[in-house]
Backbone:
């Protein structure tokens, strides 16, 4: 049972090797120590190839670590089999990707009810009402019956954010959530992430290559060559 004082996530000495046992075996994360508290809003930045996506996939329970330990909500992930990992993902994590990954044949509303369908096997009336309310909150109340292909890129990301937060997971992981958008849409989508954070107290870990966006996070973790090169509180706006 997780004590409430446990960090939300705690990685200690985490390594990741790809192509183990083959000539092209390579270690891409070299001993990552990282904790994230409940309610934090952090950026993960670093050059291309530094290991950001790999680290996010490990934290998101999409990839297994090669060494070290990873505890989520006090639970050691090494003890979890694939079914338990899937369950953990469904109860604890929301995901936003660079490309929205919405199902094209389904409406915005149907896409936002998917997490409930996956977690609970059905969409209750209460879940449906809540999905509508979240779509309203992200400014898409009038577009909830449209399919992704009928929406702009920024609107599609709004639907993806609604889907990520609809079950109020303790942690949302976002991999370049604005990477596919023009500057104005990126600013709006980022503002929406901050708004959701303020409303829900969900933790956010946002991979971005955009220093402007990192500056609007509360903490900036910088990865270089598979190691954490710096980890610092971001100066609050107006502090210099
Ligand atoms: P970033 O997100 O910072 O660009 P990645 O985590 O995607 O970095 O990649 C880190 C390193 O791991 C890169 O050298 C990349 O080529 C390698 N890598 C990533 N995924 C795989 C994979 N599935 N198999 C082999 N190597 C991989």
Residues:
């Amino acid at each position: 049972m997780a004590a409430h004082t446990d960090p939300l996530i705690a990685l200690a000495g985490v390594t990741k090797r790809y192509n183990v046992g083959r000539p092209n075996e390579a270690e891409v994360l070299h001993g990552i120590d990282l904790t994230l508290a409940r309610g934090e809003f952090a950026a993960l930045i670093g050059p291309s190839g530094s290991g950001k996506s790999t680290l996010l996939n490990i934290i998101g329970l999409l990839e297994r670590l090669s060494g070290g330990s990873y505890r989520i909500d006090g639970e050691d992930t090494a003890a979890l089999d694939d079914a338990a990992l899937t369950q953990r993902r469904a109860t604890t994590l929301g995901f936003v990707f660079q490309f929205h990954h919405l199902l094209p044949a389904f409406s915005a509303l149907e896409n936002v009810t998917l997490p409930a369908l996956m977690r609970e096997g059905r969409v209750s009336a209460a879940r449906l009402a809540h999905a509508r309310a979240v779509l309203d909150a992200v400014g898409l109340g009038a577009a909830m019956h449209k399919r992704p292909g009928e929406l702009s890129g920024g609107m599609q990301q709004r639907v993806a954010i609604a889907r990520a937060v609809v079950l109020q997971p303790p942690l949302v992981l976002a991999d370049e959530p604005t990477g596919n958008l023009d500057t104005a849409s990126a600013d709006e989508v980022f503002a929406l992430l901050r708004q959701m954070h303020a409303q829900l107290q969900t933790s956010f870990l946002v991979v971005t290559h955009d220093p402007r966006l990192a500056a609007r996070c509360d903490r900036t973790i910088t990865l270089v060559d598979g190691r954490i090169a710096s980890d610092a509180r971001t100066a609050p706006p107006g502090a210099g």
Remarks:
- The mean pLDDT is 92.
- The pocket of adenosine-5'-diphosphate is lined by residues 18-19, 28, 46, 48-54 (CB under 6 Å).
- The chain has one domain: 38-64+82-233.
- The beta strands are 9-18, 26-36, 41-45, 67-72, 75-76, 93-96, 171-175, 203-207, 219-224, 227-233.
